[in-house]
Amino acid sequence: MHVQDAEIVMSAVDPKQYPATGFAEIALAGRSNVGKSSFINKLINRKALARTSSKPGKTQTLNFYLINNSFYFVDVPGYGYAKVSKTERAKWGQMLETYFTQRDTLRHVFLVVDFRHEPTEDDIQMKDFIEYYNLPYSVIATKCDKIPRGKWNQHFYRIKKALNLPSDESLIMFSKETGEGVEKAWTLIEGILAEHQQTPHN
User: Fold this and answer.
1) Which string of DSSP letters, residue by residue, matches 137-176?
2) Does 150 map to a domain?
3) Contacts with 61 (C-beta within 8 Å, 6 or more apart), sequence order
4) Which residue of 142, 147, 149, 159 has the fewest C-beta atoms within 10 A of its own C-beta?
5) Does a structural domain hold residue 136?
């Protein structure tokens, strides 16, 4: 897909603030600093549209990025950062649950994990949450350029096993440095959008 227009249109904390366009939404969920913003920026070939932060836990809203005036990437608050208070974590959890369970235009979730490490308990809980609510999802494993290519298979199948993924296609290895996985991700996204256009909406 050739991205001509990309902009952040809003940061929301509750449904009253969500966009009302009816466009498909693809959410990105993952630990703080796992590379969700870098994934968005690489896909749309912009250096800094999505906000990256050196301070984990800083994103406290659902950030809606409108792409080509046709769909949204939705960057949700990162989880698993210890310095965030329990009260704050509970608030974020409620915000995420409301969005994931009530948003009709949410079409797919990208669960973003770090290719270098085995998925954390938080990653596994997030995957179980997504499955519990029967949301279509794929896993994006970032920073694969940090691992020697000869060890890719070992890391790939370790992540697949830990998350109990149904198929190899459920997991895309990604690197913002080399562009690994960009084409696969766009192929998947284009399929999701085509399906969304064929689905009748209220």
Assistant:
1) EEEEEE-GGGS-GGGHHHHHHHHHHHTT-S-GGGEEE--T
2) yes
3) 11, 12, 13, 77
4) 149
5) yes
CB 143 within 8 A of CB 62: no
Return the biggest CA–CA distance within the chain.
49
Per-position DSSP letters for 18-76, written without gaps between them: S--S--EEEEEEEBTTSSHHHHHHHHTT-SSSS---SSTT---SEEEEEETTTEEEEEP
**What average pLDDT does range 125-130 have in this prediction?**
93
- Averaged pLDDT for residues 128-139: 94
Greater model confidence, 200 or 105: 105
pTM of the predicted structure, to 2 decimals: 0.90
Domain count, the chain: 1
User: Domain for residue 1, yes or no?
Assistant: no
Q: What is the mean pLDDT of residues 50-54?
A: 56
Amino acid at 80: G
Q: Greater confidence, 57 or 68?
A: 68
Average pLDDT of every residue of the chain: 88
CA distances from 95 to 17, 25, 61, 77, 99 (A): 12, 16, 8, 9, 6
User: For the segment 150-164, what is each residue's pLDDT rounded down to a tens digit?
Assistant: 999 999 999 999 999
Burial of 52 (0-12, 13-18, 19+ CB in 10 A): middle
Range of the domain at 119: 6-198
Which residue bears the tokens 């990208």? Answer: 110
Number of residues assigned to the chain: 202
